[in-house]
Amino acid sequence: MDIKKKSDKDKEIPVQDFTTCDATQQMITKGRLDGVDTAFDRAANMKACPIGADSACCKHCFMGPCRLNAKDPYGKVGVCGATIDTIMARNFARMVASGAAAHTDHGMSMLDLFREVVNGKIKDYSIKDTQKLEAVAQSIGIETEGRSAKEIAVELYEALESTYTAVEGEIPFAKRVPPKTLETWRKHGVVPRGAMREIMEIMHRTHMGVDQDYTNITKQCSRTALADGWGGSMVATEISDILFGTPSPVSIEVNMGVLKEDQVNIIIHGHEPNLFESMIESVNEPTFIEAAKAAGAKGINLAGMCCSGAEVLVRHGIPHAGNFMSTEAVLITGAVDIMAVDVQCIKQGLVKVAECYGTPLITTNPRCRIEGATHIEFNDHEPKKSTDEIVIKAISRFKNRKAKVQIPQNVNIGVHGFSHEYINYMLGGSFRGSYRPLNDNIINGRIRGVAGVVGCTNPRVKQDHVHIELVKELIKNDVLVLQTGCSQIALAKAGLTTPEAAHLAGPGLREVCETVGMPPVLGLGSCVDNSRILIAASEMVRIGGLGDSIADLPVAGCAPEYMSEKAISIGHYFVASGVYTVFGVTFPIVQGTRFHKHLFEELETMGFGKWGFAIEPQEIARLMINHIDKKRQALGLDKGRERVLVDMQDRRAIDAA
Ligand code: NFS
Ligand code: SF4
User: In terms of residue numbers, what domain contains 332?
Assistant: First the structure.
């Protein structure tokens, strides 16, 4: 084992300051004894560069790199004359481009798979949900009446391909955008063409000496981000539902205690569901179960992490071992017999930790190889070839386990899988599925508004803490919370994603939850499934009574512990769609600049949403609730809510009497 020598400079911070996740705390402690460090320790010993944190530097050409002074932002310009606003806007745009590229490339992989399934070249996957196929086709104007699934699928594929390739016009899912919102986009020229074109144009416009007007750069940010949210991400979600099934709520186990000492433990971490779906087939092969038993194991135990885990927990009820900041920690258990990854959010640091515990780390995707990991390429045309090989390796690691095994015994239960389709059914019943009851409860004030709380965990803030405290505060104030990605795992570990958590909600929200039998915190899926939130918002507009555009709705969004460029793209597509979106941790621009004012104020006056920023959960909640109340007031709903509060007081007075 590679024992790390601590230099005097290395700070050893109490594990309680790193994370509120008890299992992760236990494993960081064990890791320290074993001489293994994690991203938590590295973050503590790596001061974030203050100039980079403000995006006040530019390296877009070699007359620079140029560094501006965030304390005196207008005191200096770059060698080419670029102002702080140009430099920050260009940097921001490239973050959006990278994040949008990640989601749209993921969506494109799903579309590639769909094409090969439809044309019969791939037989290991099939169309599982024909109802969803028809619904998606209809939503973009494809005729379904009297046609075979195959005919519809062929036409749907061709239409959706333009989400990526359209050189002009509007992407297909623009047809799902509420008319008033679409009108705003058209007015400002931000309706996306194909994502390839938008991302290419951002890279062009942010090259040295091209677009040097921060408002114009922001337009292209919006256009590109919308090509992610209403394009690539939405395609990823819809095609995954068609191929693997549309989620409906299941009770699942989360946390590191889902690992089993006496079983072969396999963890899948990453993002694209096809790898995991094939792995589910492989671990259920009777020959492998026999082989595992022959090796002395009771069976094969499959668990997910990050968004890969979020995809299958809602479709198959597969247990989830933890979110982004627990991926190194889980290896410290010594109980992981293999970790297989595909793309995104895979820390290079995993290689070293895996090596220390004799856990094979397997990369599977040609787009993501990691030095020191073993590559077993996954191919959609013969998926089981790779997943079978991974299972065999895992069994052999179990047989030869040398690492001392210590599994935190933490297991929590969550109920997740609230797809848009299920919410519709849950609220309206099978005969008249509808968002009407949701809108009615918002109008009558039982539900104050809806919040999306999503995104990563980040070692710059205490893991899970901001997610949990923020969500508690929101539901206490009758705000219904929708969740995706790593955030929902934080809440599941805290026990807030079960119907029983309704007792933590305010009186109005509690009443609705108890009537419907739903949790006050609804887990919708992975990060690409933020597109489900866009669809939910559009449906709220369509049903009526809450304004004409997404910007009118009493809703707000937040990624309180974000760390990735994908999150920036998501944040910006929510803003461009009309949602007030608050980010925590840090915001990569200088406060008090014109570009800051543009993102945080002016976009709203143009008919979009706007950005917000705060670090502390109470402060984030205050910003979001204030915004929701402002929207309620604009809709004339502030009176309604007061009446409910009076009712409650009355009821208490009666109770006391
Ligand atoms: Ni979203 Fe999913 Fe997690 Fe953040 Fe990473 S896994 S795509 S980026 S860290 S929520
Ligand atoms: Fe400096 Fe301008 Fe070159 Fe950026 S583009 S590095 S600001 S000279």
Answer: 256-399
Please give the pLDDT value at position 653: 52
Structural domain includes residue 11: no
pLDDT at 301 over 70: yes
Domain presence at residue 32: no
Long-range contacts (CB closer than 8 Å, 24 or more residues apart) made by 197-202: 197/165, 197/166, 197/167, 198/100, 198/223, 198/224, 198/227, 199/97, 199/100, 199/101, 199/104, 199/224, 199/227, 202/93, 202/94, 202/96, 202/97
Domain for residue 485, yes or no? Answer: yes
Q: Is 271 annotated as a binding residue?
A: yes
Tell me how many domains the chain contains: 3
Residue 311 backbone dihedrals phi, psi, to 5 degrees: -65, -45
Q: What is the CATH number of the domain that holds 473?
A: 3.40.50.2030
Alpha carbon of 224 to ligand 2 centroid (Å): 23
Asked if 629 contacts 587 with a C-beta cutoff of 8 angstroms, the reply is no
pTM of the model: 0.94
Q: Same domain, yes or no, for 476 and 616?
A: yes
Q: What is the pLDDT of residues 238-280, one digit of tens each?
A: 999 999 999 999 999 999 999 999 999 999 999 999 999 999 9
Pocket-testing residue among 268, 308, 324, ligand 1, by greatest number of atoms within 8 A of Cβ: 324
**Cα end-to-end distance, the chain, whole Å:** 70
Query: What spacing in Å lies between the alpha carbon of 307 and ligand 1's midpoint?
Result: 6
CA–centroid distance, 400 to ligand 2, in Å, is 55
Q: Which atom of ligand 2 is nearest to the CA of 81?
A: 2
Q: What is the pLDDT of residues 117-167, one digit of tens each?
A: 999 999 999 999 999 999 999 999 999 999 999 999 999 999 999 999 999
Name 13's Cβ contacts closer than 8 Å, sequence gap at least 6: 40, 41, 44
Do residue 322 and residue 210 come from a single domain?
no
CB contact at 8 A, 361 and 351: yes
